């Protein structure tokens, strides 16, 4: 729980009462590689914090898996659209490796929001972090070449190549595995 509270403290000073309530509301969860946190067609009712491990979000399209994000230690993950709207998810969230997470159910989070006004700020920071990653992903997909996207990945997140399959990385970068192999060969 230390990593979670450290992350939250970076965003806002936690009162002892609020920290105690957070510790009571989050549950420590251990998952295996390839376990799912969310599945398309099901409502996602939990918000997770990755203590250790890695996850990816992906869609199914024409029989293929399209990876659209990766998350690592100290990231919050959920199917945000499903979590917020309480509608069935259109994405899947799968763990890339054995992982330790801290999870909170939406109803418990809502109780914390009602009890502690400061929780609004913490939740907003988690949403802002997600939005920034989403916008960066959109800009990369729209305005950068495949080679530029790969180079940026190497600069910003070189560990992706060690922790995700080449097929998942290629999908994330919006290219075929063959194109990724060619670009890697030139680097």
UniProtKB/TrEMBL annotation:
Domain Cyclic nucleotide-binding: residue ranges: 31-115
Pfam family, one: cNMP_binding
Signal sequence bounds: none
InterPro entries documented for this protein: cNMP-bd_dom (IPR000595), cNMP-bd_dom_sf (IPR018490), RmlC-like_jellyroll (IPR014710)
Name of the protein in its database record: Cyclic nucleotide-binding domain-containing protein
